[in-house]
Design goal:
Number of strands: 19
Distance between the termini: 67 Å
Structural class: alpha/beta
Oligomer: single chain
Strand order of the largest sheet: 1-2-3-4-5-8
Shape: globular
Radius of gyration: 27 Å
Number of helices: 25
Number of domains: 4
Largest sheet: 6 strands, mixed
Length: 648
Amino acid sequence: MRPLTKSRYKLALDCPTKLYYTNKEDEYPNTKNEDSFLQALAEGGYQVGELAKHYYPGGYDIKERDCNVPLKRTNELLKKENVVIYEAAIQYGNFFIRVDILEKKGDTINLIEVKAKSFSGTTDEFLNKKGFVNSKWSEYLEDVAFQKYVMQKAFPRWKIKAFLMLADKTKTATVDGLNQRFQLVKTKDGRTTVKIAGDVSQQALGNPVLTAVNVDDIANRIINDKAYPDKPSMSYEDKLNLYAEKYSKDEKIISQVGLHCFNCEFQTDDPTKKSGFKECWSHFYNWTDEQYDKPKITDIWNFRAKQKLFEEGIIFIDDLQKDHIGDITPNKDGSLSLKERQWLQIEKIQNKDDSIYFDKDGMKDYMLDFEYPLHFIDFETSMVAIPFYKGQHPYEQIAFQFSHHILNKDGSIEHKGQFIETKRGKFPNFDFIRALKKELQYDAGTIFRYATHENTVLNQIYDQLSFVSVKEVPDKKELMDFILTVTHKDKHKGVRDMVDMLDMVKKFYYDPRMGKSNSIKVVLPAVLNSSRYIQNKYSKPIYGKGNVINSLNYENWIWIKKDKQGDIINPYKLLPDIFEDVDDETLDSFITDDTIDDGGAALMAFAKMQFTEMTETEHSRIVNGLLRYCELDTMAMVMIYEHWLNEI
């Protein structure tokens, strides 16, 4: 049996053709499988589901997988007048659902779908100004509407009410360590599950931070085709039956292709596998392999006119003209404007020009106001649904780590300082600010960040400080004053407001190797592959503890290493595995991935340290991995800046 489940239904809403490609990993690789798991892990989705059950105590947990046994157990339990069931299994025809929490009271059933998503405490955000479903909430509301439809069909004599249980940002935790009571563990068969640690009675959990929101009316409007402004081509029920029939028979639904297809997860470069993306496009376009590889309008940085051009039949960058971009004039200060930069990228692709654009004069003028020593900082932060600390809201910002490099006027460089919170259940933000203030307070040197994140985080911590008493934080005023000096918000701008290196990249620097991205993870390897100066300097083991460039976490490190093709390896890929010398048997029991090479992995690693059951060895390895990763982030900023200075 291949029933249409809620996850398959949501996939079909995104694209009905994907129903044919899904669950065929050996044939059609799916690039999103791992990503969705990591995202759920980082956000605390597993913990939210378990916490929600404890808000409805005394329920029956149906843990069996597949269909038959869960269906049999659910049907037996539903004979009770009143009952709570976790993961109840319901089937109607070719539809099959597992309900997160089912609460039966006589002939009324409360169907509760639990999501690790935040909401502001009012259902107003579920609908737009015209009263139709807000696109930001569509997938969640469609999910619960599908479940209501199936359950109402399966039990027509009962009244079904639909709820979304969400992380309520208007609520605060009234106990410490709430998150840590739901710890992740890995089972012998490799599955991740939640282990309860400590008292999880309703009294011990404190006031609820999750809220069950009645969305029954919206679910009914979806089912009755009244939730969206456009009239559907077929009714809700006919659409469901089509999806279920085609999925059951393993038959493909042909969908019209569009720009959204370029983000399809069913793509692969493996010649031994099939690409769902190519199969779809080949149905409408007789493209050659070369055309699939040609640069397309989706490859242009921050290009918002692509949909209009696609509708006009323009897909390839080679077919673009200046008129398609618009007014290509520089900013008032002479730096690259958004459209000017877009056309720069397009011209280089059309002319097969791989030379680097660098406005040296503009960059030099921009640098004139900088004061040495130069400080480069990077933060790692976490926002999870279930608060770690008393008084904290769901998804409130936690700043758990920073790295700090200094570049002196004489060219000397030092990894000057760092901070990381390693203790479970300890709110780090105010210690974080104290440590950062201590790093930056001894001179008036210019401070650099990459993108807006650091400014946003510091402003959020400023707001957190404003709600605590001087008794709780004796140096409250000093910390708040410090934040004001290095940040901007609204009309305020601090005397040492941090300089955004990302903004410098956008205005003055473009390497075709960067493509449509300005991420530091892309800019750094582009710089390393083009800069002889950086290559010569960092191909030697001059970086490390007590070395020419002092490091707090590396020993005699070489940043420039080449692959078999002679290309320089991205330094983020050089980061050592955090478990490289742990035996396989021990490693199998660990829940953490082997590497930390991006911000999402860093967030997840901290979250695991806070709420995952792990050994001291694993905990220590994660800390060391985080320290090396964050240090590389600020060293990357230094190397990019050094390259610019050398070119100027």
